[in-house]
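Q: Fold this one first, please.
A: Sequence and structure below.
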Amino acid sequence: MLKTGKKKNWRRSLFILAFLLPGMFLFFAIYAYPLVNIFGSSFCEWNYKNLLHPEFLGWNHIFDNFIRLFTKDTHFKTALINSLKWIGLTAVIQVPFSILVALVLSKKRKGWALTRNVFLIPNIISTAAIGLIFLNLYDPANGLITDLVHLVNPDLPLNILAKPGTAFWGVTFSYILFGGTNCLLLMSQISAIPQELYEAARIDGASDFQADRRITLPLLRPMIGTVLVLACNYGLLLYNELFLLTKGGPDGATYSLSLYVYQTSMGSTKLNFALGNAAGVIQVIIGLVLVISINKLLRTNESDL
């Protein structure tokens, strides 16, 4: 009897393993191996001169690529500063805006379903398409934004993407308010909150604002943490809009870490895979620091609720 039970457990384990193996293989082939390769090659000399034979820098010079990035490469410094700015702006503008919209759209009022759909429709459009849309909006000759400004002042020359000061904010505006995914996540969490809590609050005379402040927001803290991680990660990895709108210009005003990694590793005639991978490692480290910091900041214990 005991042997039969063990045999069944063994067969069951094999059955489960058979389903897990394809997924595990894809994970290691597509994610784990490239990630390990990126980390390893960041400690090598690997450029267009020794394309097929990367050379280890040696233990005495193992961090030379990272030192070069922070001390000699002004393009990297510019990209790092811009990416940190976008992370901060995403956290300060996009996330609070998404929370506000989710709170408003979660109220079941007449006409709200249409408003909700209109707000979420841009979510099904790719970031590349959004970039092209804003490229046309910012067009200095026929763009809608240019036409609107010229209604007020016909003689004012306007080329948003040509000047460093306006290009940065033009790119930022192209993505900062598109928080449809964040709203969906927050609204799904709001819908899971027991309605009895709100009914009890109404009986006690609480307004919608007070109910949201005392009930909704505290119970949303775990999801707000998730949304904050996703939004900041988007700011860190910002690429599509930049490539389509400005390609990092003018004068590096919209240069990001993702653009730096691409142009260093693949987008120039003097390829430097090791330097690009070192910048990618720094991106990974920044992402990990963000995740750990946000989780610590917004960690919710049962005693806090």
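Q: Good. Now the second chain.
A: Here it is, same layout.
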Amino acid sequence: MQDFLDLVDRLSAADAAERQRLEAEIWGRFGVERALLSLDMSQFSLTVRRSGILPYLALIRRMQALTAPIIERHRGAVVKYVADNLLASFAEPADAARAAVEINGAIASGAERFSVAIGIDYGRFILIPGRECYGDAVNVACKLGEDVAAAGEVLLTQAARARLGDGFDFDLREQKVSISGLELAAFGVVYAGAP
């Protein structure tokens, strides 16, 4: 991580030629083209106000314990957990979507009731494995998961949908969404229990 930060810190003082070289080095070392899954636990503020932070922290820990093996089983990797959010990367959006459906199913069948909203995008972004990720695909997936998707919903971007291929197991429901003033098509994954 420090190598990455050192390179970024050098950008602000660099002249145009050095900036171009540094950007190429950063993208060459840390750039990936993958699917990014963003999960947000629903109703954080309301639940904390009603029950307090400690019971909700227990739910966050339950979410973390439940999601990590599912992400791994679907050939993904957890990038990080932050508060009640999860970011995970996958080589392909189909694996991310299957993981998302399994996560929602596991939550629904669990004793402790909570729900999550999930957004998935595909594109080029900066990835420091197990630590951090930055880029448009990250931003869009987070917006879908945190601001647009309903509890239990899995939303994919057009870029993620375009990479699904013929073997994808679920139907998709198209909808128009607005993210930070941009009008985009999103695709809800249709599965048993989906909103």
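Q: Anything worth noting on the second one?
A: The CA atoms of residues 147 and 179 lie 8 Å apart.
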